[in-house]
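Box S2. Input/output pair 1.
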Amino acid sequence: MKKLFAAIITLIITGSVAFSEARYVINTSHSGAIRAMEYHQNSKTLLSGGEDGILRIWDIETGKTTHSFRISDYPIHTIKVHPDKNNAAVLSEKKNGFVISVWNGDTEKLLYEMSYEKRPLFFDFSPLGNYFVVCDENWQSLHFYNAGTGASISKFKTGFGIVTYFTFSGTEKNFMTYQPTGKITYWSVSNQQKITEFPTETTFIPIGITADKRNIIGFDENRVLLIDLSTGKESAVIKLDSLVFSVADQEGNSIVCYTRPAWGSSRISRYKIDGSKFSPGWSITVDKDMPVTSFTFSEKGLLSADKNGTIYRYSDSGRRETLFQNTLARISDISFSNDTLAIGTQNNIVIIRSSFLGPQDKQATLSEDELSTFTRRNPFSNADIGLSFFPDKGLYLWPKGDRNGALSLMDNDEFSRVRQCTSFSKPLINMIFSAPAYVSLETSGVARVLLPDTYRSSFQYTAQGINTAAIIDKDLFLCGRNKLSEFDSPLMLINAKSGETTIIPDSAAVIFDMKYDTDKKVLYTLGFETRDNDYWTVIKKRTGDMFSSETTIYSEKNDSTFSTLALDQINHTLYFALGSNTVYSYSNGAITKLEKSPQIIKKILVTDSKLFSLNSDSSITVWDAGSTDVILHFYLFQDMSWILLTRGGKYFTQGNGEDYLNVFEGTRFGSNVIEKYRLKFKTLNRGKDSE
């Protein structure tokens, strides 16, 4: 296997996983709410963007994901498509504002981007694709760009106030603007002059033009309007209480409205536009606990999306069918030991054992690899679960969430025996395992020291807001917590033998994670601090008597609860991820970036020569810690099928995994393509499921 890794082609692995010959796309939807959808009539594809920062492109006819790639570490809000080319303009957040980025959907390459401190008011391509126009919050808010290159075009430098909507004539010779002060204006592109203007309704949100080009369609908090484009006067109105938003189809023949009152049912209602009138169509009740987050129209009907990443299609009568959904299982935790990966979900524990996963210097050749898999029932049914392998013990399990805590141990052989070790009167935040002792952290603020042989509590300490702990020796442990006052500290050293507690001064408002290097006697902390009214994540190295000597090794402006640490006790290397798809390593005073994960990272752990991350979409990424390269991606699905993708261009699946895998060679796709990329193992053993 070492030779295999040395011979592979170095490629950046993204949401669409590209190798030397094949491109892999996992057929699943977004891991959270879909905030933007746009149908591209030219390519007959649907584009969607979500809170996960991923842009997905769908073939509605086949039900397949054709492209999936990261746009941002932050949510996507709006998508606009080029009329002819497969290019998409995407509005997403960034750390200190917003960015519009224009991408080629076929190559997944960034063409150009524009940054803004405040969210742009409107943007779109012109109908012939020559211009890309943006309205921002400046007084002269309308800006023209070359649609292909993003180069600024010196048109209309004067004459505009704040514009929130524009539309071109089909020939691109003229265009119309709407200003929220209540003004519709027509302009000539050739001489850059105003043609005419007249007053109209104020502060409504335009969403389209009717098919006969006579009316602009818009809405406010309780009305949908048709406004005559020749006079600015109201042509028709629909009054709707608790209107969240409305969307017009691309031809301007109909609209759909979504209402969500504080009391009563949420509804989706469709109306046809007949000249200068609205005609009622269908209206259906939708689940109020699953709010609609986006609408768009395709040639085959209305599409809606919800906060779970599900996309629905509606017939002309309002009948709903599920088109795409998130098929990935929700993984609550992972753990790894030697050559064994354990994955926990609310109902099952999946365990994979193979030399393929083992230390690089011990890996067999590909033809000698063996793989065994076990699927075991989660003993804490319908609960998120924490996992931790411990040498010579087995796999420790405990429930997360609101359920009262308990600690169980699963054997380390066939994983068929589970015994309960102890229980707690309150839910657990976390369990920390070390050779001299274990520490449990309860939501009540109680930290307990447990004896590894009997699991009895030998000491307990109570302090509100405890988040994490580190074991120093059999009598000493550290707690990280929320700072309770300006004169307090979030870091405490506790003597479990004497009960003495020592406050260690620290400027953080909260210590969120910590790791202790037992050989070097170095403590690493990850905390959130306030600097100039902004939150910063700060990683510190502490040494000396009572850990009183501190050095900041990294700081970044954010306060993501996905921030996490991992420590390689053998090589004394610290790894950290701070709510993005990037992992950093710190060793001998130097910080190095590892190759990026395709997803936002929630948790990292390191063992032997490998680093693992559990990602925000419940996928798993694996790095070679020595080379800093991503070498594996792992996806577990709701039916417990799974896919393993290697950097060498091979894949392996169990169960129905191939049903969730799209493999492309250029534009070629299908079962005749994927056969040659299957990974072969010498021996495959599937452990019998435990009931």
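Box S3. Input/output pair 2.
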Amino acid sequence: MNPFFLPGVREYRQRASQTPMPATVIFDRLPERLDGTLPVDDLRQWKQTGKGALTVSFHPCPVKTFCRAPLRPFQRREAYRLSVTDGRVRVEYETEEGAFRALTTLAQFLQLHADLRRPTLAAAVMTDYPALEYRGLMYDFARNQVHRQTHVLEVIRLAIRFKTNHMQLYLEDHFQFPSLPAYPGNRHYLSPGQAHELDAFARKNFLTLIPQTNCLGHNEGALGREIFNDLMEDRFRGAQVCPSNPATLRHLDLRLRDLASVFSSPLLHIGGDEAWELGYCSACRAFAKRHGGGDRGKGELYLKHLLAVRAIAARHGRRIAVWGDMIKNHPGIRRRVPRDVVIYDWIYGNSDYASLKTFRDLGFTVIAAASSSSYESVGMNLPRCADNIQSLFHDANRLNIRGGEMTVWEMEHGTFFHSSLFAVAYAAHFLWSGRRLPFDNMARRLSVNYFGLDAPVFGRLTKTLFDEIQAHFRKGLLSAAREAPVPTLGYGGWDNLMRLRKAIFWWTSDIPEKQSPFYHLIGLLTTPSYDPEYFERGQKGVRRAQADIAELRRRAKRRADILLVYDMTCRMYDFTVWMTERIRALEKDYHRGALAQARGDRGWHRHLKGLTDFLTEIERRYRELRALQRIASTRYGHPEADIRQLDIHLSLTRRFRDKLLRLKQSRDPLPSYHRFLLEYPLRHW
């Protein structure tokens, strides 16, 4: 049975004897602190066709009586020994948190036997303790998403069962801040009451919820509201608040106060990453110039703002955490950052982990942050995230830093949280056990624990979708749509549109491909890289994946419903391939010299008809995808971001087609067409 535990049990010894599969589980003097926790509820609800009851007894004792290994304080706190024999379970532990971890393992032990149709329980002794103290999961359910309490509770339960003890809720502005009613405080955002419910449930189950609201960069959502436009550092991008504006600190004070009043975590994560607009406004530029100019001045500006936000959090009785990239990029400020600031060092590749040691040697509390690489995409990038997890968390363990965290970003673009399920489970295994696992072994464990099926089909499906296809498939077709008008384009969007503008104004019939209006339109609508050979292989992979999905649906004993997520990934891939190929064909037609010079002849009308037919087919396919997204959102509690995105795209597609048809009546259609290609993305993307 040991190969199936997730996360893995450190020491498992199976005995020759067996005990009958129990019909129920009862507790002998359950510690009060554990009553109502998730594993206790799972065990109390245990109902199987079996004989008698399995009695669980609790025996608090020093760790040294059941574990000979020298343990650090956090390991002693969570260590346990679980003995199953003769219809009884003996739980030995030093603290109630250790007993809680033991019951989590026991619930999994029973479920594994039931799923594998074992008539008896193996008599076994399990001794276990964690490799790292901080074992985290960061979940981004902001980014234009609709808050679903049932979905977030499901993710929290999953984290608890994987022995995760910290979960970071990436909120941005997606919280109904009582002190900021303009934020907008509607049903799409996490309310204080819902946050309190989540926090209480997590705290009961030895999980700390850490809220994050960005206090410098990545404030597109907040700054997109006219009432907060004055806080912008750069009006053309609108992604960063101005650290020199006194109103900024008053605004952030209200945000942090509201979060501190609801969440019990001693830590507030303030973001602070990718502050690329530092020094844009006149006040910030002057400050940076007075303090050395260039990168040095920007570093000083960052430090000033960090200290100010830290002081605000301290007034509310909280410490702050930040992403480490800006401190890493400005070495001159490292030694002056207070050591009570917790640094989350996000390293999403596997090339250079020297900063972990640098931050540790400077005396910081450091959390190593890996990623499922699901951002701007339709699911995780399996090769990249598996290497990232193994190498980053191995170094975190070796360097004896506090812990690690798996980040799952941007649940939009046609993806779902469960698209990163393998990465979340693998990170949880590594952070608890500290042990690497081959892909097939890990996929087998996850298949048994999640679907109740010991078969290679889930591993094959995961590898096909997120390695063979996803490794090169970035930026889904829904990546750019936003409700108009939008006063900010965010990072990268402005530069892309400026290239598009230049391409249109300087258009000629022999313009290079990468300056073509169509080239940049592709970059805004869908994946900009086009490799016919790769897409052909990918479409064959989609067919194999759909066959595996059908098989898994037939054979899975639990949670087969969630496979709609993987089916959606296949459909999104198919749609994006089709869209990219059609745009490329239209682009070739656009570049024909005859089209540039004929202005209204049959070539122009043929091109226009091809484009309008293309938009009609897009609308039909959008409707199909929208129906599936609605099912996924309603039935499985996933956010509704992509449904709203599809609604926006449907509206924009109709407007696009209607406008093109009106161009037929223009006396000078080709220049009108060029101007339209400029105006449409500027207004709507």
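Caption for Box S3: The first strand starts at residue 11 and ends at 20. The radius of gyration is 27 Å.
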